[in-house]
Amino acid sequence: MFVAVIAILWAFSNKLPDYKFLKSYKPPVSSKVYAGEGQLVSDFSKEKRIFVPYNAVPPKVINSFLSAEDKNFFSHPGVDAKGVIRATINNISNVIYSKRLEGASTITQQVAKNFLLSNEVSINRKIKEAILAFRIERALSKKRILELYLNQIYLGQGAYGIASASLEYFNKPISELNYAEAALLAALPKAPSKYNPYKNPELAKFRRNLVLKNLLDNNYLKNEDYIKLINTKIELKKRKKIFLEDTSYYVEDIRKYVVDKFGFEKVYKKGLNIKTPLNLELQKIATVSLRKGLERYDRRKGWRGPLTNKKNLDDWNNDLEKYKLEKSIGWQLAIINKVNKFNTLIKTIEDEAGVIDYENISWTKKEFDELFKKGDVIYVKKIKNDKYELKQLPKVNGGIVVMDPFTGRVYALSGGFSFKKSEFNRASQALRQPGSAFKPFIYALALENNFSPNTLILDAPLVLEQGSDLKMWKPENYGKKFYGPSTLRMGLEKSRNLMTVRIAQEIGVDKIVNFTKQLGIYENPQELLSISLGSAETTLLKLTSAYCSFVNGGKKINPILIDRIQDSEGVTFFNTETRSCKDCDQISYLSESIPKISDNFYQVISPQSAYQVTSMLEGVIKRGTGKRLRDLNLDIAGKTGTTNKNTDTWFVGFTSKLVIGAYVGMDEPKSLGRYETGAKTAMPIFKDFVKKAVKKKDARPFKVAPGISMMVIESSTGKKANFGSKETIIEVFKKEKIDNDSISFGNINDRLKNNNILKFY
């Protein structure tokens, strides 16, 4: 008999899985993404899990799980002989009465099963499980075994491990759990689905109270406490992810980057902590502003019809998953129940009856019977009580970016109306022509090449050769008018194409191409003069980043969506902060000294030229294409952009602290309409954002660069103003040019006047 037992044990011991890796094993842990102020906004995981070392597990939790699963854990050698005998005796009765068989698995056996074996129900597996349990007990401490168990166990709701489950059910760390809550978690391993408190609260309470009785029997609870706890109602508080839907585009860009850089395994299993500059308040405002702007444009194009039509009004809300949008949008699906002359009766997907009045469909410019028929499924938004407004998913799309111009940290980013409908990011992925939004860089380069804001440039027709393989190019101003000699400032404020081309012609295409590479706008654009009008393609994120150089004194910065990344032990291994702080470690908190941080950003243009462009872009708001922003009464600057046939529309603007870029266009490029310009489609998005996000105190006058002098001139002629002058402005000049008497006041540049490749007609 003894020999037979030995033979059986030897047979089963052969080729058992290696258990030694458990000494250093750490369960897969989700990586977490945090906003700038520390709010958790997302996680990257295959399993929702937070690893907690044994020493951090409170006694209440340990006692509850031991009482529920293995009260003799700290005394048995891996298999509980008493428990096996007790289960065997009870199972004889269970077989007779066709009841569910009892198990006698210890926590160590469950570790063996969960880590090394399958869930197969068989004698073979139970024998292997027991053998492995003995071996694990010899190799690992009891604390280590329990640590593995508590962090690996599945507890329902997609939560693995006690820490994740505590957040999922109670929205609190395990350190704050009371005995009733800890007992509920301990009740779940037996059957997480069956005892799920969200789905089966009564069964969950019954099982929890059994665990509490075991705690009483094991002397972890006093009787009076037990009586109180078993009568305690289960109070759940589901964990909320703050503005997760509003951050989807931002977070997805981060996910793609870290997976590409560090690999899938590290991101999804190693518990990284990813710290971002994301500002949740600005992100929400940016998302709402973008959606509002896209919807505003879409309404101008009229009603396109219902989503679908349902013949069966009693079962209409089935098969509508593809139409569902983010909750943050605030729309509901609804069905038309009855169409009247002056209103329409609806029922929402949440089974609420409602009414749509004419004022809430007026944008369609149609009557009710032209819009709807019974059974139509539509989007609506609740106004108040039973009143609803008709909504329509915009066909157009776009993006918005909000940045710190001094560091490149991206505070907010949204790449479309709905991430659920399209994950394509129009802020960072869509390559589009920036049109006139690119012009400020031509003017910045001109100021770096001996032009001044009052330099006169000829605004007249021209035809240019672009090369042997290309047609003659005949650029035109918007509106097809010409204004003769005009100042450099006027050319930018009024967005004059012909003046811009002449400036670019004088500077040289090679210089322009090199300049755009330095700024990070383009990578390898074609060396064509049409680049001066924004014909090459870039992204909104890159263009907005380039505009930062006007605010920060001419320095090139890179957009930053990640501040730093730490591993599960808190060690920083990735950091985008490259600036140095001399003597920071020597400054006391009691000292009045302010640490000086020196940056290492590349100087692409002089601080003086950067300020001159900023001043000219302020003029865009005061007198030019951005004058619809004047009523904001803020110190702001910016530039509109509209491409050929009004295909892509832009506005990039800034205050002294923020740079904001907005883009609107179709995913399959086509005209937005004859009068749909950057000023009409993109700029209102910027305006809505600034209205809500920027206070007067946060939009201070732009800092004047050293070496700048100011002079009153005539705005139209560029001449020095005299007593009788009209329409004067304060112009900004480089002091060195005034000192050297190298500024021309009111004379058209000879080099342009004599340009022999210009053809006038």
Summarize it.
This protein is an alpha+beta fold. The chain contains 24 helices and 26 strands.
Can you tell me about this structure?
This protein has 761 residues and is α+β, with helices and mostly antiparallel strands. The protein folds into 4 domains: 47-230, Biosynthetic peptidoglycan transglycosylase-like (Penicillin binding protein transpeptidase fold); 302-394, Nucleic acid-binding proteins (OB fold (Dihydrolipoamide Acetyltransferase, E2P), Beta Barrel); 398-557 and 603-698, DD-peptidase/beta-lactamase superfamily (Beta-lactamase, 3-Layer(aba) Sandwich); 708-753, no CATH class. Helix content is 34%, strand content 16%. It is built from 24 helices and 26 strands. Strands 6, 7, 8, 9, 10 and 11 form a 6-stranded antiparallel sheet that branches. A 5-stranded mixed sheet has the order 2-1-5-17-18. β12 and β13 (410-414) form a beta hairpin. α4 crosses α5 (123-139) and α15 crosses α17 (497-507). The radius of gyration is 35 Å and the shape is globular.
Write the layout of secondary structure elements.
Blueprint: H1 2-13, E1 31-34, E2 40-44, E3 48-49, H2 59-69, H3 81-96, H4 107-116, H5 123-139, H6 142-152, E4 159-160, H7 162-170, H8 179-187, H9 201-217, H10 223-230, H11 248-262, H12 264-269, E5 273-275, H13 280-300, E6 308-309, E7 332-339, E8 343-348, E9 353-357, H14 368-371, E10 376-384, E11 387-391, E12 397-403, E13 410-414, H15 439-447, E14 456-459, E15 484-487, H16 488-493, H17 497-507, H18 509-519, H19 540-551, E16 555-556, E17 564-566, E18 572-575, E19 580-581, E20 597-598, E21 602-603, H20 607-623, E22 637-642, E23 648-654, E24 659-665, H21 678-681, H22 683-693, E25 708-714, E26 728-734, H23 735-739, H24 750-753
Helix pairs in contact: 2-8, 2-9, 4-5, 4-6, 8-9, 9-10, 13-22, 15-17, 15-20
